[in-house]
């Protein structure tokens, strides 16, 4: 298994849990594991999850996985969206029916190993390459007020037109979250959650508790999930945290808070949903091992 070069320092100083999460985010899986993932996804179950989102147009839940983009609903099998079984890495919903993503072209697809930034305006049925095709593989994406913030190659990259990019701070991170106003950007690191108030050009010191993934749907509603799957909330932009509950399934793979009450989390056992601000979770779809 090859470790992404940009995360080697993170692995050296981080615990086993965060190291495992970083390796998973790099897509460091064997060919046998890839084949198993393809087969499981094709049969209507989910393998490794990289991202979650809800389309504001209709409330459907989308799951970006190692082998395609799926919709999930309680009591139903996951459904592949379109015909692309690409490895969707960074993924975020930007508007009604509009998502941006990154990752790797699926086996035999003819698409590049690094997709750069791709965009869909029909809820994932078709995708258009916007920039950095064959060059970039964003492992985390978030957006606010029309600006996209990405983590790729050990650095923060920012674009307001999806075509030209401004390279900003270099750091070893797992996930990004920007507040709705776009004034503060958070990154999860081995030192804790670090914050930037200048658009990702500089970051302060890491703050505990350690979070693996963060999501910021409203100014006073920030959510984080630890490497063991414990969900916390912050009403002051990450200065202080209140532990809420442990999401079933332990180690997390993705977190998205749609608003202060509606939260999605993917763990080792499935995709889970909360409608009460993170107090309780119910399973939307199981994950194949």
UniProtKB/TrEMBL annotation:
SUPFAM superfamilies: Oligoxyloglucan reducing end-specific cellobiohydrolase. The keyword Zinc does not apply. It comes from the Bacteria. The keyword DNA-binding does not apply. Gene3D superfamilies: YVTN repeat-like/Quinoprotein amine dehydrogenase (2.130.10.10). Residues 1-24 form the signal peptide. Keywords: Signal. This is Exo-alpha-sialidase. The lineage of its organism: Bacteria, Bacillati, Actinomycetota, Actinomycetes, Kitasatosporales.
């Amino acid at each position: 298994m090859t470790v992404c070069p940009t995360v080697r320092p993170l692995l050296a100083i981080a615990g086993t849990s965060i190291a495992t999460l970083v390796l998973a985010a790099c897509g460091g899986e064997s060919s046998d594991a890839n084949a198993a993932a393809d087969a499981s996804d094709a049969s209507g179950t989910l393998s490794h999850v990289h991202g979650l989102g809800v389309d504001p147009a209709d409330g459907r839940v989308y799951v970006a996985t190692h082998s395609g983009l799926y919709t999930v609903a309680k009591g139903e099998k996951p459904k592949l969206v379109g015909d692309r079984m690409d490895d969707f890495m960074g993924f975020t919903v930007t508007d009604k029916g509009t998502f941006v993503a990154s990752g790797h072209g699926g086996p035999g697809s003819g698409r590049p190993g690094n997709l750069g930034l791709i965009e869909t305006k029909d809820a994932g049925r078709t995708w258009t390459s916007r920039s950095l095709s064959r060059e970039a593989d964003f492992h985390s994406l978030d957006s606010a007020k029309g600006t996209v913030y990405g983590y790729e190659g050990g650095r923060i990259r920012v674009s307001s037109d999806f075509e030209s990019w401004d390279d900003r701070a270099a750091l070893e991170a797992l996930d990004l979250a920007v507040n709705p106003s776009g004034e503060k950007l958070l990154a999860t690191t081995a030192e804790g959650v670090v914050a930037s108030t200048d658009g990702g050009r500089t970051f302060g010191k890491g703050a505990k508790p350690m979070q693996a993934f963060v999501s910021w749907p409203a100014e006073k509603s920030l959510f984080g999930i630890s490497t063991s799957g414990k969900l916390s909330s912050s009403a002051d932009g990450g200065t202080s945290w209140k532990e809420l509950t442990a999401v079933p399934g332990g180690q997390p793979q993705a977190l998205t808070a749609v608003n202060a009450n509606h939260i999605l989390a993917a763990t080792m056992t499935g995709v889970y949903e909360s409608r009460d601000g993170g107090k309780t979770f119910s399973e939307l779809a199981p994950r194949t091992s």
